[in-house]
Amino acid sequence: MDIIIVGDGKVGYTLAEQLSQEEHNVTIVDTSDEALRKADEALDVMCVKGNGASVSTLREAGAEHADILIAATSMDEINMVSCLTAKHMGTAFTVARVRNIEYTVDTNRLKRDMGIDLLINPERATALEIARLLRFPPAANIETFYRGRVELMSFRAREEDFFLGQPLSALSSRVKGLPILFCAADRDGEVIIPDGSFVPQLGDRIYVIGAPLGVHEFFQLIGRYAPQVRNVFVVGGGRISYYLASILERMNMRLKIVEQREARCLELSEALPKSLIIHGDGTDQELLESENLSDTDAFVALTDRDEDNLIISLYALQRKIFKVVAKCNRRNYIGIVRDLGLDSVISPKLFIANQILQIVRGRQNTKGSVMNTLYKIGEGGAEAMEFTVNKTTRHLGTPLKDLPLKKGILVAVIIHQGRTIIPEGSSTLELGDTVILVASGRAILDINDIFDDSVLTRGMGR
């Protein structure tokens, strides 16, 4: 597909990197010579210097025939005008990154008037993810599928876990009756799709999937129970903190927000009457202790500096805060701090990338089974995807044990007639089912991409 990305900041670069790796024709538009030089040297993309909202620049980038334009500059107004201009020029689908709260009040009208097909607010998406983690603090990460009826959660394997050192096939007696599946494991940066012979090891990041009740019962079984979060300590008073506080106030959680800018403290005090806003330096340990950090249930670091977020989060872990969440956009930091015990690290730019990647794949595959949800596991070494089975899906009614599945593919969950099923070898895919797949090492656009029909052809030729 021909894709234009307006804005080569962190978000734009991440998108260009992922989309070019999937062999799309990507053109980056930016006003910065340095940003374009970096992209041109490191990525397989075209670069156009200019204002992404101008007709001449967009024409040079190919907007008249583009399949998708993604406007991801730091200025909402440029993003919206860029989408409007590109739409009038002939671009089929437009996506705008819009962060200003005032612009996101009436999204339907904004989309209609400005020719925007999809509005994405990374700060609000990040806040919703953090709120999910605070609702169930034992999980390091949570993703939902099928309108919340299936959950994928991860946790770090600890020394006392009963399943260490034995193959998954031997665990059936301990987890029998729980509708859950070990669907992936991240070991030293490598994502493994496990089978019955897989043996979990200390320090593995384990991913389990299933119905919410079953997943929660499994966490209790392995001793990951935690009391409900009531008090939340937040450092940083930016947009994410505002959205998060708005959500948590409705959940009757009590918040303290530490913000260094006095004017921003006044704004937050007016907008968040139920939260306590503290003017001060959230990286100052004396201030944190004077505000009773050790008595809080959860700590969230949301400053504009990744380094500050990670350092104060590690300090909160030292103070035995049960749930600690940190914002970090630098991918190379995430693996390091996870090795130090900080498992819940949130990246707003990766949220945008995953959402848009899902849209791109869906538009690539207009005739097949449409992807409903996409979630990247680990550092992107594997993906969990939700599809709806339709009449184009091959091998309907064939038992899973007889399917010619490609290597690294796991059929994790089937929703059949409203029932959530952890499939067995005799399970089948039927018309109208929803299926959740886990795949490593390949981009899946359609359910049919999981089949290796050459296996059947070779078998028939013998």
Quick summary:
With 462 residues, this protein is α/β, with parallel strands linked by helices.
Mind describing the biggest β-sheet?
Answer: 6 strands, parallel
Uncertain stretches of 5 or more adjacent residues: none
Residue share in helix = 25-40%
Domain module tally: 4
Query: In whole angstroms, how far apart are the ends?
Result: 39 Å
Proportion of residues in extended strands: 15-25%
Q: Any idea of the CATH class of the largest domain?
A: Alpha Beta
Number of strands: 22
What is the name of the CATH superfamily of the largest domain?
Answer: NAD(P)-binding Rossmann-like Domain
**Tertiary shape:** globular
Radius of gyration: 23 Å
What is the secondary structure topology, with strand pairs?
Elements: E1 2-6, H1 10-21, E2 25-30, H2 33-42, E3 46-49, H3 55-61, E4 68-71, H4 76-89, E5 93-97, H5 107-114, E6 118-120, H6 122-135, E7 141-145, E8 150-156, H7 172-175, E9 180-187, E10 190-192, E11 205-210, H8 212-221, E12 231-235, H9 239-250, E13 254-259, H10 262-271, E14 276-279, H11 285-290, E15 298-301, H12 306-318, E16 323-327, H13 331-339, E17 344-346, H14 348-364, E18 371-377, E19 382-388, E20 409-416, E21 419-421, E22 434-440, H15 454-461
Parallel strand pairs: 1-2, 1-4, 2-3, 4-5, 5-6, 12-13, 12-15, 13-14, 15-16, 16-17
Antiparallel strand pairs: 7-8, 8-11, 9-10, 9-11, 18-19, 19-22, 20-21, 20-22
Domain RCK C-terminal: 140-224, 372-453
GO cellular component, one term: plasma membrane
Protein name: Trk system potassium uptake protein TrkA
